[in-house]
Amino acid sequence: MTIRWRVVRVMVTAIGIVSGWGMITPGHAQTFTEVGASLGMDVVGPGAAWGDYDNDGDLDLYVANRGGPNRLYRNNRVEGQSGGLTAGVTFTEVGASAGVNDIDGHGVGWGDYDNDGNLDLFVASFGEPNRLYRNNRVEGQPSELTAGVTFTDIAPDLGMAASGIFGSAASWGDYDNDGDLDLYVGNFEAPNLFYRNEGNTNRWVNITLRGTKSNRSAVGTVVTAVTGTKRQRRDVDGGSGFCSQPSLPVEFGFGQTTMMVDSLIIRWPSGIVQVLTNVARTNSSRSSRKGPPAGSPL
User: Can you give the pTM of this predicted structure?
Assistant: First the structure.
């Protein structure tokens, strides 16, 4: 199966999308505790992005580390474990074993560019070749083996390495609404790059959310797509990578076989959980608003 890309060069004077936080609940005291050092994650890097690359339901972290190897921190949280970091959640640095520890990364973004149901990773490098890491996870792979998920850099094969350019930022989004993710790369003192994904025959669903009780952009919402025994997680992200933000709609890929999504579980920032069953036929887009009132039947 072949994915082809078309590149459009664009020159702008500045990157206009700024990284942001999710919404803080009004009227509630919010506190934070610095735990990076205790988790072995106290590294300096310009770009970082969260994504569930192993489809186990929790967020893993990739850190672009200018001046040294990039890092991939796999979240070791056990399915069904209650609580957050206080419950003993740990991370393991797996960049080398996963094949994603090249040096001098800057911008970074997760996205399932080939719609096979696994998050792939693009890294814009500062003076080094850009990387597009294809996720090699096998459909149906037992969960205990996800610790061994590996990636292959296919940027040279697709003409996306852009060697010798100082890549600063990268964002995924389906700008032409054809069901696959396109890529915009911001460069330092060089024309920016806009890659249009020419697609393949894998199936997909795109979800656009609008909050009413939650913030209108639905930033902070977690959407889980369930098909048989497989679950995929996507988060509506208010800022990621370096000076970047991915598109607000969330995109799911399903490979060749899935014709109907069994259910969509939408966890809104307001606390409302919305469950939609047999509602999304693949190769389609769907919109949803806020969810039902708290406590109502789903």
Answer: 0.83
